[in-house]
Fold:
Amino acid sequence: MSRIKGTETTSAVYEETVYGVAPDPANGFLLHKTAFTLQKVQPRVQDETILSNRSRSEPMLDNVDVSGALNQNMSAQSLGVLLKHLMGVVNTTGSDPYTHVFTVGQLPVGLMFENDYGSKITGSGRVVRYHGCKIASANFSFPVSGPVTASFNIIGADAAPASAALDETLTDLGHKAFSSFNASLTEGGDAFGRATSIELTIDNELDTDGYVIGGQGKRNSLDEGFVTISGTLNAQFANADLMNKALSDTESSLAITVSRGTGAGSAGNESIKFELNQIKYEPTTPPIDGPAGLSISLNFFAYAKASDLGMVITLKNAVATV
Structure:
């Protein structure tokens, strides 16, 4: 028998209403992925008791670690629930098209992820469910060509096998990846046309030490800390403006929009905008690394100030689900 192939698998995500408890099957939808590395690892601890014949006693199970990454080519259709569990707060207005505005706040209860390995496996083990999951961080990559990508780093409480999917008729919200071909950028409020790539990271600083005595090695909680928003702007070095902002510790801002069609949100016209209202660059200068055109690479951090939020994500699509 041939081994299981990635093309034979189906992945799903469900919203939990009680942390670590199996959710309502109606609260799930199909996940689109380029890779999904979530897995359970539970090491064993050796017993150091000295026996006369040098043999070992039976090893003990240690704490469970559920972790991994969901990698996607970013799409407007199925991104909403993941963004809500990354940012914490969503405000939805409109009705086909919808506008979903995500801001930083307390994270929702949690998620359950499910991998179905396909019909080659019968009985227990065809499906693995990962309970009590939260999005620890996410990385968004905006290249000069090709798809915009998202990687959601996930941490969870436990995993268990099953013989069938929780929902055999899983909702598919659709998938049409965004391309950097239809992207725009403003820096400091002005159009900026020299960027060659942007990397953006949102980190929820989850407390992963939520183990308790008698908890069977499972995380009892995954509490969020600060949200840290950072990234790197790579750009052609055509003048000293960006460098001088960095060297003089000047506040700036970034807004990155990718869209399809008009970007207004109807089917075929979706968009997503990442607004970083206040950023500061790490001071740096561009190296002279060859005879051709020079580039500058600037690390930045976003932050909140008074009533101004550190970051806002606006998703416009034809999907009510978030």
